[in-house]
Write a structure and sequence with these properties.
Helix content: 25-40%
CATH topology: TIM Barrel
Distance between the termini: 10 Å
CATH architecture: Alpha-Beta Barrel
CATH class: Alpha Beta
Bound molecules: zinc ion
Number of domains: 1
Radius of gyration: 16 Å
CATH superfamily: Metal-dependent hydrolases
Number of strands: 8
Largest sheet: 8 strands, mixed
C-alpha cells in the first residue's frame, strides 16, 4: 500500500510543534508525498493560534514543486454535544477540517457522553475527518460512530502516532475501528499527526497494521491525491477546482 497524502500535520503555529510550511514542503518532496494538509490546533486548545491564522492561510501558495498543501484545522469536539469550535464564518477558508477529542477542552467522562459529542461533531457539517478516535481516554460506541461518520461522509482517521508515542493504549481500538469501517463499508485516512517535518508522511505502522488484518487499500482515501480531492469535492470544497492535475491523479 502506498500513501501519497498526509492529512494531519502541525506547524510552529501550534506551539508544541516545530516546523514551518517551508520545512513541510521540503520534506514532502524528499518523501514522495504529493499532497499534505497543515492542521494546527483550533484556538480552544492552549497551544492553538488565534483564528486569524486560519483565516489568512489564503496568502500561502497552493503548490510548490508540484506538491499541494491544503489549508486545514484540527478542531475540537466540544462538551454538551455542541459540535466543534469551528466558527461558521471560517468554513470558507478551510480546505479540510479534522475534529478530535482533546482532554484540555473536553474532560473525559463516559462512553455514552463521548459518543453523543462525537456524533454532534460529525453531523455539524463543519468537518471531513474524525481525528484519532482510538484514544482510550475517550471510549466510544465505535459502531454507532462509524455509522454516523458514513451517513455524514466523514472519514475516520487512523493516526500513526497513536500506535507510537501518543495516546497509549489506542492500538486495539484502532484495529477495531478498521474492522468496523470494512464491515460497514466506510472510509479512512492514514495520517502522521506530524509535529515536525521529519514525521510527515510517516504512516508505516498504519500500513503494517492494516495489511496484517487484511484491511483493503480501497478504503483508504490517502492513497492518491485524486481520491482525497474527490472526497473533498463531495464536501463542495473549491480547492479541488484549483488543483485539476492532482484531482485527476487516482490510484
Ligand atoms: Zn489531536
Ligand atoms: Zn494533531
Amino acid at each position: 500500500m502506498q500513501i501519497r497524502c498526509d492529512t494531519h500535520a502541525h506547524t510552529v503555529a501550534s506551539t508544541h510543534a516545530y516546523s514551518t510550511v517551508h520545512d513541510y514542503w521540503a520534506a514532502a518532496k524528499q518523501k514522495g508525498i504529493d499532497l499534505f494538509a497543515i492542521t494546527d490546533h483550533a484556538p480552544t486548545m492552549p497551544d492553538g493560534p488565534h483564528w486569524w491564522h486560519f483565516g489568512n492561510m489564503k496568502v500561502l501558495p497552493r503548490m510548490v514543486d508540484g506538491i499541494a498543501m491544503l489549508r486545514g484545522v484540527e478542531a475540537n469536539i466540544l462538551p454538551d454535544c455542541s459540535g466543534t469550535d469551528i466558527p461558521e464564518n471560517l468554513k470558507p477558508f478551510l480546505d479540510i477540517a479534522i475534529a478530535s477529542f482533546h482532554e484540555p477542552v473536553i474532560p473525559p467522562s463516559d462512553c455514552a457522553t463521548h459518543t453523543r459529542a462525537a456524533i454532534a461533531a460529525i453531523s455539524s457539517g463543519c468537518i471531513q475527518i474524525l481525528g484519532h478516535p482510538g484514544n482510550p481516554n475517550f471510549p466510544l460506541d465505535y459502531e454507532e460512530v462509524v455509522r454516523a461518520a458514513r451517513d455524514h461522509n466523514v472519514a475516520i482517521e487512523i493516526n500513526n502516532s497513536s500506535f507510537m508515542h501518543s495516546r497509549a493504549g489506542s492500538e486495539p481500538n484502532c484495529l477495531k475501528l478498521m474492522e468496523l469501517v470494512d464491515r460497514l463499508d466506510w472510509k479512512v485516512v492514514f495520517a502522521s499527526d506530524a509535529h515536525s517535518a521529519f514525521s510527515l508522511g510517516e504512516v508505516d505502522t498504519c500500513i503494517a497494521k492494516a495489511e496484517k488484518i487484511g484491511f483493503p487499500s480501497s478504503r483508504v482515501l490517502s492513497t492518491s491525491p485524486g481520491r482525497l480531492l474527490q472526497f473533498l469535492a463531495e464536501h463542495d470544497k473549491p480547492v479541488v477546482a484549483e488543483l485539476p492535475e492532482l484531482a485527476a491523479d487516482f490510484r
